[in-house]
Design brief:
two-stranded antiparallel sheet, mainly alpha
Length: 110
């Protein structure tokens, strides 16, 4: 599971975190958007700004809702990850120049 913090998506944690989270969302590899709640003052459990930003970035309301509702619920319900709908960027492989296929993880390093 790849989790991104809502505050990183909305820019609360700075430009670098925002750009990285945007790239992961645009690549379609994020499983979960969650809060980084540590307390009610400095890091409160706020998802709304991250959800709004993720929808603006991806243009896919349904996938964002899977990131904040369906997949976290699947974890709580102890559903096998293979039975959970994958993010769009992980649901297919890409062709390699040598005719083989590379999964997303291998694309990170090549």
């Amino acid at each position: 599971w790849l989790q991104v913090t809502a505050e990183a998506i909305s820019g609360t944690f700075g430009r670098t975190a925002k750009k990285c989270s945007e790239r992961l969302l645009l690549d379609g590899v994020v499983h979960i958007i969650a809060s980084d709640a540590h307390d009610m003052v400095y890091r409160p459990p706020i998802l709304s700004t991250g959800i709004e930003a993720a929808i603006r970035i991806t243009g896919d309301d349904a996938e964002v809702m899977r990131m904040v509702s369906d997949r976290p619920l699947a974890i709580l319900d102890n559903i096998d990850p293979s039975d959970v709908l994958l993010p769009p960027g992980l649901s297919s492989s890409i062709e390699r120049s040598d005719g083989g296929k590379k999964n997303w993880m291998n694309r990170l390093f090549c």
